[in-house]
Amino acid sequence: MTDPTLLDETHDPRARSWLDSANRIGCDFPIQNLPFAVFRRGNSSEEFRCGVAIGDQIIDLSALAGLAVFEEQAAQGIRAGTQSSLNSLMQLGPKVSGAVRRALFEGLLEGSGLQATLRRCLVAQGDAQYSLPAQIGDYTDFYTSIHHATAVGRMMRPDNPLLPNYQWIPIGYHGRSSSIGVSGQTFHRPRGQRLPLGAVQPVVGPSNRVDYELELGVFVSGGNSRGTPIPMADAESHIFGLCLLNDWSARDLQAWEYQPLGPFLAKNFATTISPWVVTLQALAPFRVPFVRPEGAPPPLPYLDSSWNRNAGAIDIRLDALIQSAAMRERQEPPHPLSSSSFRHAYWTAAQLVAHHTVNGCDLRAGDLLGTGTQSGPTPAEAGSLLELSAGGNRPVQIGGGEYRTFLEDGDTVIFRGWCARPGAVRIGFGEVQGRILPALD
User: Fold this and answer.
1) CA distance linking residue 364 with residue 381, whole number of Å
2) β-bridge mates for residue 174, sequence order
3) Do 117 and 157 sit in the same domain of this protein?
4) Which of these, 5, 188, 234, 370, could form a disulfide with 141 (CB 3.0-4.6 Å)?
């Protein structure tokens, strides 16, 4: 496997693009990033196709493929980018997607002889309409934050908040891929069974406790043959990249249904992901050691490796914000709710892949793994309203005299993600947003 900490000229903080918007301070998509998405021009009948973000523009890979300016693996990947999803490019593996990223980096550099050619392939992000990055065949959501698991477990099982298997096994459940939508997704308040406080019989109706969950999504690259586990040494070669993910949850439905088999209707009504997928190559400068809380047992051998201990974690900063219907009416900006980092996760992305396949399960290109709510060690780093409001007992002020324990109709939730450290250029994930609508009659 390629060293996940390997840096090259594409990470050079001195590199600048001939496209001015890519060089602006705070830009999510500088030349060191170059994430992938699926798009078309808004209000058009164009076919969706793959693109790469640079500054405030998109490089249209379909237009670029027609110009035939690149060769070998880069050309192969760009041809795959003419499709209406990233699945074909994902299937080719990280060497090909990395070749595309490197070729575009060189073509976008100041002084590049390809400036005039690539400029012909630009589409403004403000004019774009996005689709899901991939055809998602299967979706598995994990539970990688021990801080979230402990906080939620304390509410549901005060005497036994963290079940004994949590420190040994990446806990996950199979979600519903059909209800995954791209940023901008709206959904109606879900209905289902819940047990009101003090009642002995459940009722059926709209959820009163709809919540968000601040997560990352991990897109699978080339898969594995059924029956053949993916070892830790190869796990990251099966990851295409990461995106932002909101795993909407109906907490009252969840509390009633989750025993003995876990989440079902509380989780399968909507999941929203960001359009841009940031590659592992772009994230290399932001690797950090994989560290667990003091006293935690070491992972079992199939979930352990020296490189995972040294650099398996990634410092991806995550912000959650909310904008109510009244705030939009008053044209007020979204209100910050919390901030956290993926570096606090109890399990790394590589460990999720290795564990998912240890029984012989076959992953396929375009499959999506959710990391679970990314809560940090302090209360301000909680990744859900369930935690911020202490189970609905401590209303959270969101500005303008409004408070929330759980989400109300018309609320929009926004996640933003980025990486930054001294000596490296800041790169971002863009944002993901979704809105809850009133329940259907």
Assistant:
1) 33
2) 140
3) no
4) 370
Among residues 102, 131, 160, which one ends one of the domains?
A: 131
- Relative to beta strand 412-419, strand 317-323 is antiparallel
Looking at the chain, the whole-number percentage of residues with pLDDT higher than 70 is 99
Rg (CA), the chain: 22
pLDDT digits (tens, 9 = 90+) for 38-84: 999 999 999 999 999 999 999 999 999 999 999 999 999 999 999 99
DSSP strands (E only) in 47-143: 49-54, 57-60, 122-124, 128-131, 139-142
What mean pLDDT do residues 192-196 have? 95
Look-up of token digits 């990249």: 241
* pLDDT number for residue 159: 82
Residues 170 and 301 in one domain: yes
Which H or E run contains 242? Answer: strand 239-246
Q: Report the 10 Å Cβ neighbour count for 5.
A: 13
Please check whether residue 320 is in contact with residue 411, taking contact to mean a CB–CB distance below 8 angstroms.
Answer: no
CA pair distance 432, 320, nearest whole angstrom: 10
For residues 247 and 234, is the Cβ–Cβ distance under 8 A? Answer: no
Same domain, yes or no, for 198 and 52? no
Active site residue 148: yes
Distance between CA atoms of 102 and 95, rounded to whole angstroms? 10
Q: Which two tokens stand for residue 123?
A: 């589409």
Assess whether 426 and 313 both reside in one domain. yes
Q: What's the pLDDT tens digit per position in 91-144?
A: 999 999 999 999 999 999 999 999 999 999 999 999 999 999 999 999 999 999
Domain with 195 in it: 139-437
In a domain, 124, yes or no: yes
Concatenated DSSP letters of 258-322: -TTT--STTTSS-EEE-S-BEETTTTGGGEE-----TTPPPPPGGG--HHHHHH-EE--EEEEEE
Q: Could you say which of 148, 335, 355, 356 is catalytic?
A: 148
Residue 357 lies in a domain: yes
Burial 303-324, CB ≥16 within 10 A → b, else e = bebebbbebbbbbbbbbbbbbb
The two structure tokens encoding residue 257: 């249904």
Question: Which pLDDT score is estimated for 378?
Answer: 94
Share of the chain above pLDDT 90, in %: 92
